[in-house]
Specification:
Layout (H helix, E strand, L loop, with lengths): L4 E7 H4 L3 E3 L5 E4 L2 E5 L6 E6 L7 E3 L3 E4 L4 E3 L15 E3 H4 L4 E4 L4 E4 L2 E9 L2 E10 L2 H7 L13 E3 L3 E2 L9 E2 L2 H5 L4 H10 L5 H6 L3 H9 L3 H10 L2 H10 L2 H10 L2 H10 L2 H11 L6 H4 L5 E4 L4 H11 L8 E5 L5 E6 H6 L6 H4 L7 E2 L4 H11 L3 E5 L5 E6 H8 L19 E2 L1
Parallel strand pairs: 2-8, 17-18, 17-23, 20-21
Antiparallel strand pairs: 1-12, 2-3, 4-5, 4-9, 5-6, 7-8, 10-11, 12-13, 13-14, 15-16, 18-19, 21-22
Length: 428
Amino acid sequence: MTMAAIIGEFYFSQLMGKPILDAAGQHIGKVKDMVVKWDSAAPRVTGIKYGRNTQGLVPIKFVSEVSSKHIQLAGEFAPHVMIPLQDDEIYVRKWLLDKQIIDFKGSKLVRVNDITLTWVAHENQRDLVLVAVDIGLRGLFRRLGLEFLVKNMAHNFIGWQFIKPLENRTSSLQLSRDKEQFSQLHPADIADIIEQLDYNSRASFIKNLDSRQAIEALAEMDLDTQIEIITQMDQEQASDLLEDMPPDEAADILGELPDEKSQELLSLMESDDAEEVQELMNYPDDTAGALMTTEYIGLSANITAEAAIEKIRELAPTAETIYYIYVLNDNETLLGALSLRELILASPQANLGHIMHEKVIYIRHDDSHRKVADIIHKYGLLAVPVVDEQSTMLGIITVDDVLEILIPERGRGDVSSGYIVNRRLWRW
């Protein structure tokens, strides 16, 4: 088996603008761009664009030498040997350079500042292969001809084997292991990455996340960005995402959309989800009802602590954090509450009705935001239940919801969001 020999290594920026010479040394043009076929781990150059006003490409098989000074052809240049761009080929400068890539190590969006290429020989064939992208500041300075200013700065490369081919000629590059690595990122980091994307890329990026990642990332963004992303999505996609979001957050977004758009999205959601969201949207803005979420755990007073823990264990995989358990009767009247710690420490056979706190701090659905904040602050609560005039449990308001009201300029991403249960109201 014959091994490939490396003849030369270059940066794309070093080759751009270099003269192209035929075998006799005749100047035929300059390197304007390169075309690659990306059908393996690393893209291979198939042709070189040599003129501004021509679409013809010099086939790479006619190139005998690649150097930082010039590109040398093997024979005499003739226009009839030029080849056109194929459907499965892309321009390097036009469609790869300056594309955005996710740097998972730094949890941020980075840009392709330069590209490394290797000139290799294998048997009677020579190939110019794209090896890595340069995402560092040094690559940017190199393109500007100022690399000497940062010559002591470390290189920052990502190998092409970790990058997915473009789905189309205008999309952003993606890392080939993004699904696996995205699960390692905090939702706030994913939100930061999305917010760094251009306006047109955000919705498509969200679409490529799984439902849970999309919801958690969206929850970390400010309301204006959430609205922008939902507006860019097609109606089916947007309604599916809203359906899976906490109803209070979905209500916040839909409440800012034009009535016609809001009703269209509600009509596409499951009826139970849509009804829940619509009820929240009907509360006046400055009331507790508009601030609450209907996601809480409500259990019967007659079940034992052991049975309650089993029920909570069933729900735990889809729950974020559970601090309080609310005890309700058959009419959903709030009877009492207890913390998760108290439940765990209780006798397994004790009924919740015997271990709950009957004197529960609560607020009415029509109380003001200021009163909600005062109650949570006064009693040091992580969440407070919301009831109607008949003491029927309607929902809860969590401390992070209050912080968003008191410190709106911080946005969702700066406030802890781990106090509410993941999916709708549970009553057992």
